[in-house]
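Quick one:
INPUT:
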């Protein structure tokens, strides 16, 4: 759902072909500018949250790597004795 919303923000609403028998009034599901702005803010917030999650995941990966390195060194030292 968020991907479709993001697509709508980036690409704009889908346009329907105008035929003679169709009404020229805007579609019933047309978003108001305020609703589109609120949706854009929500998506920006979600993208910011994803950035934070990604950064924290890399931080955890780095910490895990350091801990494994320490454990390997300790195991190597224990094997020598």
């Amino acid at each position: 759902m968020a991907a479709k919303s993001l697509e709508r923000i980036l690409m704009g609403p889908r346009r329907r072909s105008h035929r003679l028998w169709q009404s020229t009034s805007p579609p019933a599901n047309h978003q108001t500018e305020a609703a589109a702005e609120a949706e854009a803010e929500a998506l920006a917030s979600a993208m910011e949250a994803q950035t934070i999650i990604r950064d924290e995941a890399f931080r955890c990966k780095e910490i895990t790597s350091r801990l494994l390195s320490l454990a390997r060194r300790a195991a190597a030292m224990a094997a020598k004795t």
